[in-house]
Amino acid sequence: MTWERILDGGAGLFAGPRDFRAAEVYVNLPGADAREASAYLRSEGCRHVAVFAEDRVAEEARDYLYYVFEHREDPRYLLLRASIDPAYAAFPSMAAEVPALNWQEREIQDWFGIEATGHPNPRRVALHDNWPDVHPLRKDFAIDTVLPPFEGEQHIYRPTLGEGVFQIPVGPVHAGIIEPGHFSFAVAGEPILYLQLRMFYVHKGIEKRFEHLSPAHAVFLAESVSGDSGFSHGTAFCQALERIAGVEIPESARWMRTILLELERIYNHTADIGAIATDVGFVIASAHASRLREQVMAVNEALSGSRLLRAVVCPGGIRRAWTRAQLDDALDQLARFAPDFDRLIDLIETSDSTRDRLERTGTLHPDRARDLGIVGVGGRASGNDLDVRRDHPYAAYGKLNVEVPVYREGDVLRRMLVRVDEVRHSLRLIREAAAHMEFAPCRAPLPPLPEDGFGLGVVEGWRGEILYWVRTGPGNRIARCKVKDPSLNNWPAMVEAVKGNIVPDFPVINKSFNLSYSGTDR
Amino acid sequence: MIERFVSVIGQAAMVLLFSPLIAGLGKALKARLQTRRGPGVLQPYRDLYKLLRKGMVIPDTASWIFPLTPFVLFSTTLLAGLLIPAVSAQAPLSLFGGVLAVVYLLALGRFFLALGGLDAGTPFGGLGSSREMTISAIAEPALMLAVFTVALGAGSTNLSSMAKAAVGQSWHFLAPSQMLAFAALFIVLIAETGRIPVDNPATHLELTMIHEAMILEYSGPYLALIEWSAAMKQMVLMTLLINVFFPYGLSADASPLGMTVSILLFAAKLAALASAVVLVETANAKLRLFRVPELLAVAFVLSALALISTFLFGSRG
Question: What number is the ipTM of this complex?
């Protein structure tokens, strides 16, 4: 077993008992400094998935940081727990060595008031300047606190200097129906010198809101973290609860979750392919893509009663069982969708003018993608061979052969091709899963949650890795819920991908990543 | 004198009233090709009516150029529409140099539009103006050369003389100089009217816009004037293309029968040309901005070749 071997190899770095579970391994650090252990784990081929904090001052007079690692050869995740003395409330930053942790460490600073010492860019990220000096995720911050009006210093952007260099501010309010984010371009004529991002305009305090919710209620909150990934988010949250409660979901629910997760992937990827065509002005392809997306939404509705697959997943399985006729009908519709989808792709691929726009546009170099920890579609187009479905199977993926398309060129075209490959592959997975389906009860009862349980749920949503870590409290309530949407990792990739491109190509580069504002800001 | 007056009024009315219909026809056809139902062909009229009744928001930074621009644009475009022969070989008006006046009246309107885009003081307006001027700097020489090719054959830059000379000729479109000049002008038409693959009039993405970026700050009646001018400009350029290269049926006199035939043929030719533009728009993606000059360079080379072949082979092949 990989984790046992790796942990034994670095014995001096870890302290206290180790907790080996079915899907997670918990290991303690002797103090607050994770740098040495992280360096060792990275040298062993592990990847930093996330870092998050937890306020346990009331219970244990400590704050904890959890560094989540994964290794390709072990289906379990490693959670490295660093203990922080609230009197000092600081930890050494690793953002310089592991740029993927940049925003996450700053979130911990903003939300918990635990300082990331030595952070190369310690400005606020999650809380904007109109917040006074408060740390809302601390337990002593009441959720109904009304903050007095506050005017802080302005967020300082890197100045735009140089002869003929101009600044183009775009947003936070954009044309079209998208969410807010501010992009500040420094341009010399049309070419972009650099881009600065400002996110978290729609920070809603979702992680705080989870606390004190009952599990059944909390599922709905998880589903609305990022609207187009509702089912994936809900499933990741339910998996965490099921692990805490020690519930095995019925076999039929595993297959159903697999089918629904793939349907979510198909409808979103199809929409994205159309959106990329829209942004290069290839209107005929985008018209067909929206038609095709609608077909998949109809399948969603026929199977689950919800076009966006809301209120379908529940802790313990799936809310309502399907009949064989329902599933066969869905398979029939998907069988008609497949050749239509192939024709759409053929239309796009044989259009020279489209290919010219997509190829070598918005290139994200594999080195940058690896350093920034880019996950999901954007990562796989730049050589990051990561897929939770294959590496850390959940639902019924362990029984299926999950293929992962990987390209190294990292341009808009490859990000589109990853989606194309995945849609075709998802159609196959759905057929295989349907062949295994048993039409048995699909919901196991969820017993009251233990008073002090904790567990992890990770799902490969269509954007990438979605992570939930939940701790339960007394009275069948959630005490802490960490939500990590793949967009949080991936936004900084935009900064790298647009460098040297021209301004009018920015929208299509942005669309090729199609990141969630809501999921990032929470 | 009366006759001249009638023709001025008639053609002005035609350009004003029918140009939105051509725009609407193009949009409706485009929607059909995308398997959408789309708005009706009369939608541009409804849009203009709506905009004309609305209030306006004028940026605080705007100077006198901002409100002047829509009027300059509207009047120069309408005047250009009076300088070209539409249903009769005789244009209602003739000003210095004929076709040169048309080209530079349109250029004057564009100049003010670019100023108006800058005047609002937003970064998008500046982007649009800079792009528009870059493109027109290459489109204009191509347009001029192509027009000269035809003018050489007619021995005049007066559009009425050119049309009359063309009507009198037998079929000569297959002459290399004419074909090349037509191809060049077709590309210029697409660039000047802001169509895919040069510009996307339907986009909501400010960063990719050219023409739309310049007029982002305009609203209400000013926007109506600008939209109307854009429709008129499209009609003027299409009419120019039609009557210089396919003048058949152009009425040489003002007899009722001749005029009727001429009007019907003119409408059919306009519809055919508008459809061709829509087909190009549907079949292509928008070009990368830095490739647009390449496309226009092609137009320029084509018109240069057209001019050379006029000298080598004569304008009538």
Answer: 0.84
